[in-house]
Design brief:
Elements (H helix, E strand, L loop, with lengths): L6 H24 L6 E2 L2 E2 H18 L1 H16 L2 H33 L3 E2 L2 E2 L8 H10 L6 H7 L6 H7 L2 H15 L4 H26 L2 H16 L5 H28 L5 H18 L2 H16 L3 H14 L2 H17 L6 H16 L8 H12 L10 H29 L10
Length: 431
């Protein structure tokens, strides 16, 4: 009997096949065939269709998953003292790793200087397209005051509208309060509520398992679409910038986070990478940390051995507020654009970029390319030309996929380390 291929290998094979298919379609488009078809069906349209179906299926369960998991997680923790201790450790980890990621990006941007070629700024080599102009026009109305709106969105006037609009931060805050005040009720009143939301959470996780059976097909469609539309072209200063960002992400995910896993959590970094492979590959293909949340929770609980009490609190929170890769990218993008325009940023201005990137990364939605708005806030705060955002779109999708994988891995590391600090045993011992 043929052994079943593991999910992460299925996803990896799908990514490779998608890259080949997308490259072929991209070649046909470049040769003048703007809408390649097979048996009268648009090939590019087919890629988009199956990719969108998979992504919609994941998005469908996000709101009930987040609300039920946080409610059960917070209520299951028990006393307010335990909640405060767990929340404090979680937030300290998230802030520390995000700050570390930003500093890595800042250092490499200053060392490599992708905004300069032969000592000259590359601004003249970067042309704005129409989409960049449109984004710039929207960004003109934004500024540092948008940071305050992030915290305002935590208290939605209508929780049902917030759920419909995908305002995840508001849902998390309401679920946190709901679960916390469940612990303040007498047991005869809280027990039925806890049992109900625990059952809802179990059902949603079963639905997740079923949806993930179709992950290789969905991933194929998503990746094939990206390659067919963008191709494999990587030229000029944008390629150097993309390389710098990817290098910074690799430093963070291969050095900083593994060191924390081994020396703080007492876990095997190699084993952890293997355990989180399905979630990281899904994050890479979907470019959405929120959409990847179901498989992230499954990997952390089943493969790493973290309890549901920890994962249901740490991971949904991390999917919104812990954006290591996103914060790194925001800082690197602002610095790159400053270099491209020949601006000599002082230490004070660079510090401002670091601080604002840390704040804005908290409120960035876990959906593809949402960080562009946050970058607009940073540019406006430090006086950089906002129309420059357009040039980032050339490689944004690929970089979005990479930084999302880092975001998801950072969330998983936090869950595992916090679990160890809380005295839990896991399946991965340090080697």
């Amino acid at each position: 009997m043929m052994q079943k291929i593991e999910l992460h290998w299925q996803i990896l094979i799908a990514i490779i096949l998608a890259a080949i298919s997308g490259w072929i379609v991209n070649g046909l488009i470049a040769s003048g065939n703007n809408d390649p078809s097979f048996l009268g069906i648009s090939v590019l349209g087919f890629f988009k269709y199956i990719g969108t179906m998979f992504l919609n299926a994941l998005k469908m369960i996000i709101v009930p998953l987040i609300f039920s998991s946080i409610t059960v997680g917070v209520a299951g923790i028990g006393s307010g003292g335990n909640l405060g201790r767990l929340g404090g450790k979680t937030l300290l980890f998230y802030i520390s790793t995000t700050l570390a990621a930003i500093l890595v990006g800042l250092v490499l941007i200053n060392v490599i200087n992708p905004g300069y070629i032969d000592g000259k700024p590359v601004g003249d080599m970067l042309a704005l397209d129409s989409s960049g102009i449109e984004i710039a026009n929207v960004a003109q109305s934004r500024g540092p005051g948008d940071i305050a709106k992030v915290f305002q969105s935590m208290v939605p006037p209508n929780i049902f509208k917030a759920a419909a609009d995908g305002q995840i931060l508001g849902i998390i805050f309401f679920a946190f309060l709901f679960g916390y005040f469940m612990t303040k009720l007498p047991s005869e009143k809280s027990a039925p509520l806890f049992s109900f939301w625990e059952s809802v959470f179990a059902i949603i996780m079963k639905m997740t398992e079923w949806i993930m059976k179709f992950a290789p097909i969905g991933v194929y469609g998503l990746v094939a679409t990206v390659v067919a539309e963008a191709g494999f072209h990587a030229v000029g200063p944008l390629a150097v910038f993309a390389f710098t960002v990817i290098l910074a992400l690799l430093v963070h995910v291969l050095i900083i986070l593994p060191c924390l896993l081994k020396f703080v959590g007492g876990l095997s970094p190699y084993g952890f990478f293997s355990a989180m492979a399905p979630a990281m590959l899904t994050a890479f293909s979907t470019a959405s940390s929120s959409a990847t949340l179901p498989i992230t929770m499954e990997c952390v609980e089943d493969n790493v051995g973290v309890s549901n009490k920890i994962s249901s609190f740490v991971l949904p929170l991390g999917a919104t507020v812990n954006m290591n890769g996103t914060a790194l990218y925001e800082c690197a993008a602002a610095m790159f654009l400053a270099q491209a325009y020949g601006l000599d940023l002082t230490f004070g201005v660079q510090f401002s970029i670091v601080f604002i990137a840390l704040l804005t990364s908290v409120g960035v939605a876990g959906v593809p390319s949402a960080s562009l708005v946050a970058i607009a806030v940073i540019l406006g705060a430090v006086g950089l030309p906002m129309e420059a955002i357009g040039v980032l779109l050339v490689f944004d999708r690929v970089l979005d996929m990479a930084r999302t994988s880092v975001n998801v891995f950072g969330d998983a590391c936090c869950a595992a380390i916090v679990a160890r600090l809380e005295g839990e045993e896991t399946k991965l011992a340090a080697k």
